[in-house]
Amino acid sequence: MNEHSQIERLYTFLEESTEHLKPYSQHRTLKALNLTWTYLLEDTLEMPLPQTVLSALKALKDDIVDETFDKRSMRKACQLMLLKAFKEDRYSNAMMTPDTMGLLFGYLIDKLYPSGLKTIFDPMVGTGNLLAALPQALKDELFYVGVDDDPNMIDTATNLMDVLAFNHDFYLQDTLTFETGEYDCIVCDFPIQPVSSNLPYLPYEVLLKHLHRLTPSGYALVLIENNFFEQRGKEQFQRALLKEAHLYGLIKLDEGMFKQHPKSVLILKRKLDEAETLDDFLLADLPAFDDYEAFSKTLERIELWFAKRKDD
Questions:
Q1: What average pLDDT does range 56-62 have in this prediction?
Q2: DSSP state letter for 85
Q3: In the chain, how long is the greatest CA-to-CA distance?
Q4: Which of 72, 167, 218, 229 has the highest Cβ tally under 10 A?
Q5: What CATH topology corresponds to 3-91?
Q6: What number is the average pLDDT over the span 278-286?
Q7: How many CB atoms lie within 10 A of CB 181?
Q8: 95-311 maps to which CATH number?
């Protein structure tokens, strides 16, 4: 079975099963999708359902249970169904990291950790889509840890990673109170922040809270709005940040990718000690992914930058 057929069959199972379960999920598509994933994994649901619904679910699952699906097809089918659930439940698509960002983060992590790594932490994990996309570009079998204070998002992230059989621990908790573990790498797609002159800027707080969870010389890769360094409290943030970490790189993304809130990828490297210095800084403007020639040339320059640092 080719990839397109795999995606189509899996999506049909997810879509039709979710429709059967919506009347028992307050007519919320995301809740019903999470029940569908639970049924796929456990073959049962801990809730009373009419026999007609149970029979329909069983028939849908029996239609795919003997097939072998690769993780790429499974992830794409799940992502398509997540997009549908977000649309129907009126969640913003901005809450789900685009697939291309998972590929880019995976590529950068592969370059930053030539000897490999074991753990990745996302302090605002959301749907888990960023973490779920990373293995496409990474060779190692990793352990993923995530935190979020939204029960629907944690349920979604947990079920998504379970379906894809990735090792993980996710916590339903305010990230600013999370105190567990040390990690080789931190990744995060910061949610769009409301404009406020009174509240602290949450991405500043999250980074300063969790940078010490990085192993020494570990990296944090975070998706930031382009006005990240223009927020209230920026001077205090930069002073505190530079005690803990180097500004290692900044990759500005094509503005067509995030039209309403243009973004960049900020790379930080945890210092071994406060006096440690860094001689070079990765700076790049990444063209649109569909501009193959310009994108390839920029990628070549990034490759050369990493090769030079390796030689040094």
A1: 95
A2: H
A3: 68
A4: 218
A5: DNA polymerase; domain 1 (1.10.150)
A6: 89
A7: 12
A8: 3.40.50.150
DSSP per residue, 201-254:
-HHHHHHHHHGGGEEEEEEEEEEEETTGGGSTTHHHHHHHHHHHEEEEEEEEEP
For the chain, domain boundaries? 3-91, 95-311
pLDDT in the model for residue 310:
65
Strands 143-148 and 214-225: unpaired
In whole angstroms, give the CA distance from residue 309 to residue 65. 48
What pLDDT score was predicted for residue 42?
A: 93
Residue-wise DSSP of 127-158: TSHHHHHGGGT--S--EEEEEES-HHHHHHHH
| Residue pLDDT, tens place only, 65-81 | 888 888 889 999 999 99
Token couple for 61: 């699952």
**How many Å apart are CA 237 and CA 129, to the nearest integer?**
28
pLDDT tens profile 116-152: 999 999 999 999 999 999 988 888 889 999 999 999 9
Q: What is the pLDDT of residue 63?
A: 92
